[in-house]
Amino acid sequence: MTADDGRDGILATLASMPLFDGVHTKTLEEVLDHSELIDIRDGDLLTVEDEVGTEVFVILDGRAVVTLEGRELAVLEAPDFFGEISAFQGDERTASVRAITPMRALVLDRHAYAQLLAEEPVFGARVLTAVRDRMDALLTDL
Predict the structure, then answer these.
(1) pLDDT per residue over 117-127, tens digit each?
(2) 77-92 mean pLDDT
(3) What percent of the chain has pLDDT over 90?
(4) DSSP for 85-130?
(5) 110-119 vs 25-33: helix axis angle to the nearest 10?
(6) Side-chain-facing half-sphere of 130: CA atoms under 13 Å
(7) Does the predicted model carry a pTM greater than 0.85?
(8) List of E strands, 17-62
(9) What kind of architecture, by CATH, is found in domain 35-141?
(10) Whole-angstrom distance, CA of residue 16 vs CA of residue 111
């Protein structure tokens, strides 16, 4: 995906990601209506642990580091996503995420995220699986 990609390019990119595989095109189009494509600079802080968050970030390009209490937990890159736990209820973020390269991300607002969870059971199952895998990895590292 390049900076010149339009809506069709973004839709094609999302459809090719495991998270969105099988999600209906109409639903993805509606999600884009409630999302924002952002360019992120190396070093930008995207989420801060313990601050309330209401959006989900889907990485399209670049890398970010996840930290908890200053400890590095993971490095994320496309097609990873983050923010799904706090966006579900509007709760506090469970970790901080900082860009370690220039990035592009699609930011889903709470409405778009809730719509996906409600209308696309396969999406919800993939989010739950990712949360479980992240929790397993965290517990293994303790």
Answers:
(1) 888 888 889 88
(2) 90
(3) 45
(4) HHHHHT-B-SSEEEESS-EEEEEE-HHHHHHHHHH-HHHHHHHHHH
(5) 160
(6) 17
(7) yes
(8) 35-40, 45-47, 56-61
(9) Sandwich (2.60)
(10) 22
